[in-house]
């Protein structure tokens, strides 16, 4: 049975029913800080998991498979020197990615860290445009200037892709303030790794979001490691979702390898942010199947640990579940795989065939508005060549 740290108070009624795979923590009794707004708004039972249609489940499986094949191709392309710079993969997080994205509307905003290829795909950006960005091509989502860590597409409302650990968290709080100020009903979702919860900006952002009732869902993607450091080595409170209590923010931990459980927990969080303008802290737990980035052989993991990871693979688990439930046979799965692999092959070919960006556009996206007297320092510029 899941553990709870909720205090049964008037402001935070005990949950009567909890979504599958979740552990919850609610705000403790709050003095009347924002008056009636806070009264009775801190609890709320999570919706029961609906029975899923075979179509929905196969659809989720397909999306997870797409992310898996995309990331495998990215790793290969990196070793072929087609991708430069840093490159971090979502291998092991596929169920988390798909579950979280299924809870968002197209108009909702998303901020992530540098481990974001799958989220870009989940936000509806084509595999071609994401792969082209990894290859540094002008057809990429960030016109080839961002690379793997800086995917950005304002139209899809993916507002990055950040390489600075925790850099995205205050920006997400700021975006939620903008939504709130304009009176919109969009929600901001902000992802980060477990290691990020020790960064000062994480706490500052949660504090302000709690204080000002911002419509933002913070999601800690807990893969057990910040590079090679375990959560237990770096966090005084390793049950990270409990950090929400310090900001009187409802928080839940969910099994990140269960796509439906993630989606349901995320829906609860997102709807709470949308309907009540309350922030939420969601923690998902999933394995990081490979190293921190594609160049990390993860030598800090024992042979036994690496072996155990195979059993934790969410994609293999879902394939087995669908087969056992008579929803997707082995042959059907192979066909799906061939289809998805062809899609990724096409994305890689598109990236390969795309041109590099023009050098003259190097500084075009540095500032939102023109900077008077800016020294552009392009190759033909005397300042650059002198
Ligand atoms: C401010 C800052 N400090 C250190 C780094 C170096 N660094 C890059 S990734 C990383 C680990 C972050 O781990 P976590 O937040 O758990 O995310 P994950 O990589 O597991 O997704 C560190 C320390 C950085 N990029 N930014």
Identify the notable features of this structure and list them briefly.
386 residues, alpha/beta, Rossmann fold, 6-stranded mixed beta sheet, globular, binds thiamine diphosphate, EC 1.2.4.1, Pyrv_DH_E1_asu_subgrp-y
Please count the beta strands (DSSP E, at least 2 residues each): 8
Name of the CATH homologous superfamily: Thiamin diphosphate (ThDP)-binding fold, Pyr/PP domains
Contiguous runs where pLDDT drops below 50 for at least 5 residues: 1-17, 28-47
Distinct small molecules bound, one entry per kind: thiamine diphosphate
Query: What is the alpha-carbon Rg in Å?
Result: 22 Å
Order of helices and strands: EHHEHHHEHEEEHEHEHHHH
The dominant shape is globular
CATH architecture classification: 3-Layer(aba) Sandwich
Q: Strand content of the residues, in percent? A: 5-15%
Whole-number count of domains = 1
Please estimate the helix content: 25-40%
List the helices and strands and how they pair.
Layout: E1 22-25, H1 54-79, H2 94-102, E2 109-111, H3 117-122, H4 127-134, H5 168-182, E3 188-193, H6 200-211, E4 216-222, E5 225-226, E6 229-230, H7 231-234, E7 250-255, H8 259-276, E8 280-285, H9 303-311, H10 314-324, H11 330-353, H12 382-385
Parallel strand pairs: 2-3, 3-4, 4-8, 7-8
Antiparallel strand pairs: 1-7, 5-6
The structure holds thiamine diphosphate (TPP).
Thiamine diphosphate binds at residues 113, 115, 163-165, 192-196, 223, 225-227, 292.
InterPro entries: DH_E1, PDH_E1_Alpha_Subunit, Pyrv_DH_E1_asu_subgrp-y, THDP-binding
Domain Dehydrogenase E1 component: 63-359
Catalytic activity: N(6)-[(R)-lipoyl]-L-lysyl-[protein] + pyruvate + H(+) = N(6)-[(R)-S(8)-acetyldihydrolipoyl]-L-lysyl-[protein] + CO2
